[in-house]
């Protein structure tokens, strides 16, 4: 009983701190509460986020603000077609000492940080994109045969422009799967855009201030995994993920006719973590089925693919996910 009471007290204290962090971020990144919530959820889960949106919607501003508020050492890399893996990871150089002796010295690349912004990630070649695979999964890089650990915590927030496809390279499925969530950054509504104009075109702007430290974020990530998840939510996560695998007996006819390949176990792991993070960000002590429904699209969209015939018919993955998830939630409620 005492352990349960301590856990509740720790979660409630963290929820208060997260509310302050969210408030500090939304003062500079105005009117995009869902985007802020998803990015904070990715950090709380120890994962990475893929931000997809048109130019000028504040994606870079969001990441810079997040770095300050969460107390993380951040670096930014502009991905271009001529970017090489060594430009991200670092490389060895040959130094000559005063006595004439020579030795190799490793110069760290920008990936040696705690929050890496990979700007326009799909503009780099597949060879350069693959340089991030090991770092995103194992939190280390191998250069010249030596494994080098990255800072803790380590997160990648990548941005991608959905309309400029000239000179771009699609992200490999293996790399997409390593992003915990796909975050769509939409145009603001009129009132929000008015607030943005007034807040950002005056003499002064709100400055971001630190709310967390890196050590506190690591502790929060550990606490998140201790949050209890009810059996009903666990079963719903399993039902939802398996329902999008065309070869699974539980998949419906629409999924079998629409989906080329579905999400793997990493999708279920991502949902298990992110529903806890959403509950925590909203001041609750445990996740609910509604959290699963809310996070189905950001977690699953980039882990699935439409068949050729489905694309020809104009099918949409977000519509399919929302339809199946809503039907599943209704069935769970009826049961």
TrEMBL record:
Keywords: ATP-binding, Nucleotide-binding. Residues 253-320 form the ChlI/MoxR AAA lid domain. InterPro entries: ATPase_AAA-3, CbbQ/NirQ/NorQ/GpvN, ChlI/MoxR_AAA_lid, P-loop_NTPase. GO terms for molecular function: ATP binding; ATP hydrolysis activity. Gene3D superfamilies: Magnesium chelatase subunit I, C-Terminal domain, P-loop containing nucleotide triphosphate hydrolases. It comes from the Bacteria. Transmembrane segments: none annotated. Belongs to the MoxR family. This is MoxR-like ATPase.
């Amino acid at each position: 009983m005492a352990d349960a009471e301590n856990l509740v007290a720790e979660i409630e204290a963290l929820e208060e701190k997260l509310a302050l962090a969210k408030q500090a971020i939304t003062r500079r990144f105005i009117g995009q509460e869902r985007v802020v919530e998803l990015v904070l959820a990715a950090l709380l889960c120890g994962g990475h986020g893929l931000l997809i949106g048109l130019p000028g919607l504040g994606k870079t501003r969001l990441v810079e603000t997040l770095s300050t508020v969460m107390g993380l050492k951040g670096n930014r890399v502009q991905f271009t077609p001529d970017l090489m893996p060594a430009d991200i990871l670092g490389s060895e150089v040959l130094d000559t000492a005063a006595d004439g002796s020579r030795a190799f010295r490793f110069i760290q690349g920008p990936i040696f940080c705690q929050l890496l912004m990979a700007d326009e990630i799909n503009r780099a070649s597949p060879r350069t994109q693959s340089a991030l695979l090991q770092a995103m999964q194992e939190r280390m890089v191998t250069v010249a045969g030596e494994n080098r650990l990255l800072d803790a915590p380590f997160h990648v927030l990548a941005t991608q422009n959905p309309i400029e496809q000239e000179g771009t390279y699609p992200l490999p499925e293996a790399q997409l799967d390593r992003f915990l969530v796909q975050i769509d950054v939409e145009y603001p509504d009129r009132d929000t855009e008015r607030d943005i104009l007034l807040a950002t075109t005056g003499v002064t702007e709100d400055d971001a201030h630190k709310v967390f430290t890196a050590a506190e974020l690591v502790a929060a990530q550990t606490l998140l995994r201790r949050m209890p998840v009810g059996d009903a939510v666990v079963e719903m996560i399993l039902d939802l993920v398996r329902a999008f695998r065309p070869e699974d007996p539980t998949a419906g006819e629409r999924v079998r006719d629409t989906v080329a390949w579905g999400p793997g176990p990493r999708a279920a792991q991502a949902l298990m973590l992110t529903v806890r993070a959403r509950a925590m960000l909203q001041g609750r002590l445990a996740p609910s089925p509604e959290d699963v429904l809310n996070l189905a699209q950001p977690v699953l969209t980039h882990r699935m693919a439409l068949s050729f015939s489905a694309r020809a018919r104009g099918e949409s993955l977000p519509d399919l996910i929302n339809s199946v998830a809503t039907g599943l939630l209704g069935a769970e409620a009826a049961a």
